[in-house]
Amino acid sequence: MAKDSISHSVIRRMPRYYRFLGELERQGMIRISSRELAERMGLTASQIRQDLNCFGGFGQQGYGYNVTELHAQIGKILGVHAGKAIAQHIDFEKRGCKLIGIFDSNHALCGKQIAGVTVDPIENLEAFCAANHPVMAVLCIPKTAAHDLAHQLVKLGVRAFWNFSHYDLRLEHEQEQIIVENVHLGDSLMTLAYGLQHQGDAHE
Amino acid sequence: MAKDSISHSVIRRMPRYYRFLGELERQGMIRISSRELAERMGLTASQIRQDLNCFGGFGQQGYGYNVTELHAQIGKILGVHAGKAIAQHIDFEKRGCKLIGIFDSNHALCGKQIAGVTVDPIENLEAFCAANHPVMAVLCIPKTAAHDLAHQLVKLGVRAFWNFSHYDLRLEHEQEQIIVENVHLGDSLMTLAYGLQHQGDAHE
DNA sequence: TAGATTGTTAATCGATTAACAATC
DNA sequence: TAGATTGTTAATCGATTAACAATC
């Protein structure tokens, strides 16, 4: 049975299960045991069973898990709707989202097409939100602008932020909860650089 | 005193300390206590002191930490060399790295400039590596190509991978350790979408 | 010196792993 | 039925927090 509240570490692992199961399904695999999935993913079988049982008993004793069904179940949990695999790098639709507008303050970019969407001047943002009620915003802007723009967007009804500015967004709203995923690619790069520098430090 | 091996959770937090301290320094702050830094970063003072003491005692009892010094120390730990703030979104130099080559299999893109570097056809990759000995590679390619290209790059001497393909790279090398930072923006987006769907689930 | 705040040890908490009864 | 493998409880491990003596 689904628990009251799922820990963040569990949720963060779900998309990875989703990816692996999608791949296995594509390869024609019908069933898989927690032991084998664990091997492939570099986890323990226990952990996989624990994780999945946060959401429900998707397996069958003596058999394992049906790949297609488990993939679909996790897709449902994560809110992935049926969607065509169209776009390029980040396939929004495949992940249950639809890219409906792109804005830039640099007018030289406006009018150009990105992933099938025309770039609009930032001045049109307010009218666009009033007309289309977007629920999520992707911020790829300098950190100096991130705070103000995010607050403006909250006023315009945006409730989720995928934030790539080098700034830790923390947003409040009286009525509703605002959710933020801060990506920080710079931090990721520095973590990698640290590893590079300390390569071979660990004896053994 | 620096510990033998630092846990990954600690290392992942260091770039964030680095960012915050850089900002505080820029604002002219001279000293800061673990308590105040904790408040600003949304952590506990204990955790900050524990984290920093993995690398050494940078503070002073009764005083706190010198912002500039601590920032510099963490920069040193993370391997950030002096570097001019030039490029746009990901400022490699600011993070101790230098972008020296970009390759694409799409010949239409070759010849164009990105962040001051000319895009080369992928066919030139091998000659480029022989001449320049790059130590890190950033992979923004379809997952079908990631595995093979990464192995080719290991043969060409690359020892660190910043991997954006939707594929979990795991690389081995007899002599040297290969380090990989798998980014998975798709997973990040799905985590966000989950939160959006379950907004307000948590009572209170 | 007295007050503040670190560095560090001990206690707590949460997440991962192990074990095993339930059951397909 | 016997074998396999889950779902779930208990044990372990690691990370975070609390406490406090050291000391600036």
Question: Could you explain the architecture of this structure?
Answer:
The structure is a homodimer of 204-residue chains. Chain A is of the alpha/beta class and 204 residues long. Chain A is 40% helix and 13% strand. Chain A has seven helices and eight strands, in the order αβααβαβββαβαββα. In chain A, the strands form three sheets. Chain A has a three-stranded mixed β-sheet, with no helix packed on it. Chain A has a three-stranded parallel β-sheet with strand order 6-7-8, covered by helices on one side. In chain A, strand 4 (113-114) and strand 5 (117-121) form a beta hairpin. In chain A, helix 1 packs across helix 4 (67-78) and helix 2 crosses helix 3. Chain A is globular and about 60 Å long. Chains A and B meet through helix 1, strand 7 and helix 7 of A and helix 1, strand 7 and helix 7 of B. Chain A binds a DNA duplex (24 and 24 nucleotides) through helix 3.
List keywords for this structure.
204 residues; alpha/beta; three-stranded parallel β-sheet; DNA-binding; homodimer
Amount of beta strand of chain A: 5-15%
Q: Which two chains touch over the largest interface?
A: A-B, 56 and 56 residues
> Could you name the ranges of chain A where pLDDT drops below 50 across 5 or more consecutive residues?
81-89
Q: How many strands of chain A?
A: 8
Query: What is the number of helical segments of chain A per DSSP (H or I, 4+ residues)?
Result: 7
Strands of the widest sheet of chain A, in order across it, are 3-5-4
Approximate shape of chain A = globular
Question: What structural category arises from helix and sheet content of chain A?
Answer: alpha/beta
- Series of H and E elements of chain A: HEHHEHEEEHEHEEH
Give helix % range of chain A. Answer: 40-55%
N-end to C-end Cα span of chain A: 43 Å
Oligomeric form = homodimer
